[in-house]
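Progress report, Aim 2. The chain analyzed during this reporting quarter is listed below.
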Amino acid sequence: MPNQSPTHKGAMKVVHVSASDIHGGANRAAYRIHQSLVKEKAQLNLQSCMRVITKYSDDPSVVEGVSLIRNPFYRYAQPRLLVRHRYSIPFHTTNSVHHSFGWPDSGLGYELNQSDFELIHLHWVGHLNGHETISIKEIGNLSRPVVWTLHDQWAFCGAEHYTLPPPANDRRFVDGYRRDNRPANEFGRDRNRATWLMKKKYWKRPMRIICPSRWMAECAKASELMHSWPITIIPYPIDHEFWSPQGVDQARQLMGLPRDKLIVLYGAIGGLNDLRKGGDLFQNALQQLKSMVVGTTLDNIEIAIFGQSQPVEHVEVGFPIHYIGKLDDDQALRLLYAAADVFILPSRQDNLPNTGLEASACGTPVVGFRTGGLIDIVDDRHTGVLAEPFEPSSLAAAIQWVIESKERCKKLGAAARVKAKQLWSPSVVAGQYKEIYSQLMDDFF
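Predicted structure tokens for the chain:
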């Protein structure tokens, strides 16, 4: 592992650990943090490498693969043990988010302890493509200073990466995963409790926790597991030189969208079917918006949705829908933000969604609910609008307010881009991380 990354005399050596580099929002955010440090390495006197299980980019600073330190028999047996562990014991829940059980050992913990990296930065370390990135026990046994950026709630919850979204009041991560407070939506073996108890057992030494949003920090501080741990808020970086305003007419032509319509954009993996991302609330809001604008000059709205292909059954929202499908190309996604008059983020529960940062940097105003990390992204009536959670009528009114004035829409978008450059610039975020690294190294040694 050490021989696969560049060395710089005197530079602090940091390794970022994540399941992947650019697959999924959390891993993409981790990669952007790593890249911001790479770009600022000379100023920060820091060497950054990324260690992942599955690599999707061609970046030479990202090292992939299962750990090769463990013996060949264990490397053969580990994924089979994982499958047996996941599926042989009955566990049922209506919480459809990803679950990671943090077992068995992957060998990555031993590899990291044997490497010459001075500091380990954990990111999204759950189960992906048949492998656990690193086990709960291995995390507890890391012998180097550890920084952990929380891209979701898994670190202080059980096996679930997010609790049930509102209106559910899922407080097990606050009260502890006891036998008497198991929610009615689960049955079978209590895998969430078992996973949480492993964390409680092996994580004896507090780790330095970084939360991208105030909401995530509040959750971590309220948790039984991390309430006394040091927690700092540092947002995700966004490359505002790449994510920047583009020509609207050309963007619409390239993306196959009409030039003479108002384009309302929405995007999520799974599209309208993602309950946590509020796809159903968005549909309801559009139906109410239709009744508000019918017969007016605003009755020329069309909807663009990425993350979902044309469904078999027609979805009626009152406006024509353009299904863009899944976008893995940042160039196309940047054009899509440019083509839109407004970007809608109606999440019930979200940390600091990359799409909100990207849209803001591209000068597209964001509309969402006043909840979670959306509060950190949107300055209400200045860079976008925050609607009352989780009222479709309020969301519909917010969309109408943005698009009813072209001048207002442009003003909101311009302010959003200014905010993106001031707060989420890679150089700013990299500097904040270097400060945390230096503090931790001083305290550790």
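Residues 248-423 form a domain with the Rossmann fold fold (CATH 3.40.50.2000). The longest helix spans residues 426-444. These observations will guide the mutagenesis work planned for the next reporting period.
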